[in-house]
Amino acid sequence: MNLSKGRSKRMSIEAMRLPLVALIDVVLFLLFYFMVAGDLAASEAELQTTLATQQGTGGSSSSLQAQIIEVKFDGTAAFYRVGARTVRTASTLGNILSSLPRDVGVIVRVDDNVPVEAAAIAVQAATDAGFTKITYVPGS
Asked: Phi and psi for 58 in degrees, rounded to 5?
């Protein structure tokens, strides 16, 4: 039986020194790496923007504005105004919207006193006409 504890204590201290030295080396290496990487990285002020700017101003599809459908109520029935045209039926509204460019989207602007059904008809007509960008703006 070996009852001496002194030798095992000395062994554990020696065995513990090696990982501690390696850990210090790793920490110093990481510190050095981050200091060098921080100096070599470009600052945000020097970075180039990735947004493409369009040269010229006329004739492109991005210069088009979204069509505005105004839904109003005259006391008896709701009516829809697209530009200078005023219509009262959903089918006529759908025909007008199907002749417009679809990539710019449509805005459905509804007055306060308009029934919810009339606003839903305008949104549905825009969907049926093939618009994917539909914005609903409640009354002002």
From this structure: -110, 150
